[in-house]
Amino acid sequence: MTPLPIFLSVVTILRNNVESVEQSLRLLVDKCQPLAADFEIVVIDNASQDGTLERLKALVEKDDFPNIQVYALTQKIDVDTAISVGLENALGDFVAVVNPLEDDVSFLDVMLDKALDSNDVVFAHNLSRPKQSLLYRFSHAIFNAAYRWFNGVDLAKDAPHYRVMSRAVVNFILQHSQPEIIYRHLPATGGFSRCNLEYNFLVSTARKKRFKGSMDRGVKLLVSSGKAPMRAVTSLSFLAAIANLIYSFYVVVIWLFKADVAPGWASLALQQSGMFFAISLVLLVFGEYLLHAASVSSDEPKYHIAQEFLSAKITRRAQLNIQEVEGSSPPAAGTADNSREG
Length: 342
Hints:
Blueprint: E1 4-14, H1 21-35, E2 36-45, H2 52-60, E3 68-73, H3 79-89, E4 94-97, H4 108-116, E5 121-126, H5 134-151, H6 155-158, E6 163-166, H7 167-175, H8 179-182, H9 186-189, E7 194-199, H10 211-223, H11 228-257, H12 265-297, E8 305-310
Parallel strand pairs: 1-2, 1-4, 2-3, 5-7
Antiparallel strand pairs: 3-8, 4-6, 5-6
Helix pairs in contact: 5-10, 11-12
């Protein structure tokens, strides 16, 4: 197989994967070496507490784990924010976001072929998803239905996490004030040429997803994806006003034509319950918008990198902003000679 004449970046997120980290990196290195002329693997350690970081430090010292960059975060953040950290540090012509525990790494060559065929972004949807709890599946279906209604995109099928993006798409995402939010849906809604692929990969080691964390990410994504949710708030308010107006006519009709109803009791109880139900829905959505606005206006950094280290072996000859001067030896991996910066 002839390597593709591209520089490929692979972003992967790890947290408490000490038992599987070596296997995961081995899969990525073995796949990338014959696939691309140049490659790098950007690993984001999401504040692991089980020895994953120590294991990563040991692995990158070995020559058979080249071109790996590790960024260790000081505290756990959500997956989308962790991915945005990886995108910020990826330099490739194409950037793949891969979870080796859930995604079929061997499918990456098919995705790259499609990306080179004038597709800015290539999504890959696994038809064999790991089993989740009934509550999670029910909430997931409701969220996807709501997001599809608001934005016309089914995130699970039309914008899954497993993807290959061109440098133009990555740069566009990073220009946004909140790349960790729009990363998920922007490539599918931003007018880029895209390709959606499907494959079957039996996932045996994936972890159960937590309902609370998924709900938080889903609500954040839903209320930040455009004006449609706020339009829903105004629509709910309008419908509540119309319903109460109609109900007022109903109360008047009952009062005029019924003689055996307790005066005012039934109509008052029903009116109050209906009003409070509508108000509760409005306050719920509006409250989420206020929380989102508060998070946007906060000056607190979204993440902190505690440590950063590279593989002992880097196969790339052309380092960023470095030019070799004729008759001089190239700098050692991980160092830069300022006198030769372009």
